[in-house]
Design brief:
Layout lengths: L5 H7 L11 H10 L19 E3 L9 H4 L7 H13 L7 E10 L4 E9 L15 E6 L6 H9 L7 H17 L9 E6 L2 H13 L4 E7 L6 H4 L2 H6 L3 E6 L15 E3 L16 E2 L2 E2 L1 E2 L4 H15 L3 H16 L6 H6 L1 H13 L3 H11 L6 H25 L1
Parallel strand pairs: 4-5, 5-6, 6-7, 7-8
Antiparallel strand pairs: 1-2, 2-3, 3-4, 8-11, 9-10
Helix pairs in contact: 1-4, 5-11, 6-7, 11-13, 11-14, 14-15
Length: 399
């Protein structure tokens, strides 16, 4: 078993859970699986008195793959490979999947999805002598929809946002039904997610303080407004949060976060380190680094300084303005914008030119995440315009 990513880990990790206990690597695997658009064969959230699930192999139906892996991301193929590897794996093939919820609403600026994994029948999971079922509630991170991106930015100006409220409601339903008279024993439940999903897991644990929550995982999940992390509810669960971030983390360092986290080496650079499929795993464990990269630390300080200089009301206006500019192209997702870059960028550029320099700079940084060469000329144009004006002002000041 050599170094690789999570797909390599699942393909080569033959130890069952009595020989290698559930780890943060396993949590990342399940968090990544939560990005799949589950087919109708997976029971919908709240469809039964008890927690309803089906075996993972029931997801291996090729006629559904077009809708299951439809984000337009290069990571769709990696998630397909992950699903197949898990169904074949002696460690994961006893996994059951259910209670799938997915909601997106532009009006309320909400993007939420969650799924519950039942590990009880995975080989070795009962090896600790505990008869209770073992569940993992996975909250999906942000998809590439504009409304999902907008909700993430809303987290910087208000708490809770709709997806946080829905995450708490989802967990309470799972907990109640898993611990109901119809269940032989109260379940042991782990919460986790990648990106925004990690934030939802931490928020849910903080709000419920449930004794049935066994572990809490956040994989490069953003933090919270400072008043939240200073609350007694947050401080009560903070020591139990198992957070992992890549060495050049940006998302996971946003806002105020937990004080302890593990830093993971990746096989890429820049913002793509955020994607869990790029994290390095060796012998069943994350390959760790002693500290964040200088770029990550600089961005963390810069973003914090930017956030601190504005009131909540000012940040809210800036977020709304940024969203309106990007949405001016008429597309609903970043994938659509990338596919129609020739039409989208002129509309975005025209809307952005009508704003102040600070907002225009923020838009440039957002669009930089899109994998399109056509965008680069626009970045350079805006940067040159901004730089030219700055140099002109400096020259005038010297004269």
């Amino acid at each position: 078993m050599g170094m690789g990513n999570m797909v390599d880990y699942v393909r080569t990790e033959f130890r069952t859970f009595d020989r290698k206990r559930f780890s943060a690597v396993d949590s990342l695997v399940l968090s990544e699986l939560a990005y799949i658009r589950m087919p109708a064969t997976v029971p919908a959230f709240g469809s039964a008195r008890s927690v309803a699930t089906v075996p993972i192999w029931r997801l291996l139906q090729a006629e559904h793959y077009g809708s299951m892996f439809c984000t337009g991301s290069e990571y769709d193929a990696g998630r397909h490979d992950l699903l197949v590897a898990m169904a074949e794996s002696p460690r994961f093939r006893g996994l059951r999947v259910g209670e799938y919820a997915q909601r997106s609403d532009e009006r309320t600026e909400t993007q939420f999805a969650a799924v519950t994994f039942d590990l009880t029948d995975c080989a070795g999971m009962r090896g600790d002598g505990q008869p209770a079922p073992t569940l993992y509630v996975a909250f999906r991170g942000t998809d590439n929809s504009l409304v999902g991106w907008k909700e993430d930015f809303n987290m910087s100006v208000r708490c809770p946002v709709p997806s946080q409220t829905q995450a708490v409601e989802y967990y309470r339903s799972i907990d109640e039904r898993a611990s109901s008279p119809y269940a032989a024993h109260p379940a042991r439940i782990a919460l986790g997610g990648h990106s925004k999903g990690g934030n939802l897991a931490v928020y849910t644990a903080m709000q419920t303080q449930s004794p049935h929550i066994a572990r809490i995982f956040s994989h490069d999940g953003p933090g919270f407004m400072r008043e939240v992390t200073q609350s007694a509810a947050f401080k009560a669960i903070e020591p139990h949060v198992e957070k992992t971030v890549p060495e050049a983390s940006v998302i996971g360092m946003l806002m105020s976060t937990v004080s302890r986290y593990d830093i993971v080496e990746t096989n890429v650079s820049g913002i793509m380190q955020h994607m869990g499929l790029n994290w390095r795993i060796d012998n069943g464990e994350f390959v760790t680094k002693p500290e964040l990269s200088p770029v990550s630390r600089l961005l963390d300080r810069t973003l914090d300084a930017w956030m601190e200089q504005f009131t909540n009301e000012e940040r809210a206006r800036a977020v709304d303005q940024c969203y309106d500019i990007i949405a001016s192209a008429g597309y609903t997702s970043f994938a659509e914008i990338a596919d129609h870059m020739g039409e989208a960028l002129p509309a975005i550029a025209e809307a952005a030119r009508k704003t102040d320099e600070a907002t225009r700079s923020l838009i440039v940084n957002i669009i930089k995440a899109l994998p399109a060469t056509a965008a680069k000329s626009l970045f350079e144009e805006w940067s040159d315009e901004t730089g030219s004006r700055t140099r002109t002002r400096r020259d005038e000041q010297r004269q």
